[in-house]
Amino acid sequence: MQTIVLLGLVGLLAQLVDGSLGMAYGVTSTTLLLFIGTNPAAASATVHLAEIGTTLASGVSHWRLGNVDWKVVRRIALPGAIGAFAGATFLSSLSTEAAAPIMSGILLALGLYILVRFTGWGTPRGNLGKPVRRRFLVPLGLLGGFVDSTGGGGWGPVGTPALLASGRMEPRKVVGSIDTSEFIVALAASLGFLVGLGAAGVNYAWAAALLIGGVIAAPIAAWIVRHFPPRVLGSAVGGLIVLTNTRTIIRWLEVPDGAQTAVYVVLYLVWAAAVVWSVRAHLADRRLHAEAAAPTATPEEPGPGEAAGAVTDTAPGGTGDSPRIEARD
Predict the structure, then answer these.
(1) Tens of pLDDT along 199-210?
(2) Domain coordinates of the chain in residue numbers?
(3) In this structure, are residues 33 and 45 in contact, taking their beta carbons and an 8 Å threshold?
(4) CA nearest 234: which of 98, 111, 102, 88?
(5) 312 in helix, strand or coil?
(6) CA angle 111, 164, 53 (to 5 degrees)
(7) pLDDT tens digits, one per residue of 236-290
(8) Where does this protein have compositionally biased stretches of type Low complexity (predicted)?
(9) Residues near 296 by Cβ (< 8 Å), separated by ≥ 6?
(10) Cβ neighbours of residue 44 under 8 Å, at least 6 residues apart?
């Protein structure tokens, strides 16, 4: 029962992150399942089954708040589904010993990307309003779907930064469109795992716990995407993913205890520095925007009876309240 409650909380927190960043639900949830010793293919299958419900709830929430570009969803979802099905059947064919380091390596790379991307650059803006081309979205969907199912997550970390980097969509619409299209990707991945593992390969109680937590968080996350700084959240989540999956790889490599401690100390310091940097960068950006939005003072027009070039002065012996006007030649 304690595990079920914990997974429910993980599903809630993971969906808050995913709905705000457009990524990291699968990466976060799968990382935890691997941490407690779940078979890699079963972990990914369980998370993707839960994602069918969470992505549906998230998509509806984003749609109601106007965060979805349906043209992008239509163009990226089908290639994503094909890639996810292929990735799921591939992962299901690997042994547990071979799959564990592969999945952790993918998750570590995704975590590093999230950490560096959001810490260093935040969320870019550029040619807003220009259409995103099909020849860009189709290969992006295929790659994102394959990485998503083999890594237990990856649709958001692959798709969201790529669409943000294009500069053609508002960040909130990138997040909403990626989250909405992920419903089709999760459905295809689940079918692939069903073919590769059979019905016994999924822990339905765990999937239900993740689902319930995610559904509760979906509408909250759709609201957070408008208010919480994604730069700070991306740094925090990216560091957590890197730290957890580094632990798995270190154990697989049988690194000596002294070297493990050194690696963890460095990672904690880098993670803390990244979060501090992101907070300071966000505050600096907010100050710049506030200064740019502040009204600028304009010179006052001459009042009635004041000639252009007139100079005002105070009468001799006055208090400064009675103006005297001297006209210049």
Answers:
(1) 666 677 877 887
(2) 2-288
(3) no
(4) 111
(5) strand
(6) 65
(7) 777 877 887 787 788 778 888 888 888 889 999 998 999 899 888 888 888 887 7
(8) 292-310
(9) none
(10) 26, 30, 88, 91, 103, 149, 150, 151, 152, 153, 189, 193
